[in-house]
Amino acid sequence: MSRPRPFTLLQAGSGLTLGALLLLPLLALLLACNPVELLHLLGNATVRQALWITLLSALLALPPILLLGLPAAYGLSRCHGRVRRTLEILLELPMVLPPVVAGLALLLAFGRRGLLGALLSACDVRIPFTLAAVVLAILFVVTPYFVRRSALLFDGVERKLEEAARLLGATPWQSFLHVALPVARRGLFAEGIMALAQGFGLFGAVILFAGNLPGHTQTLSLAIYSAFESDPQQAFALGTLLLLISLLLLTAARGLQPLEVRT
Question: Which domain holds residue 147?
Answer without folding.
Answer: 48-219+251-262
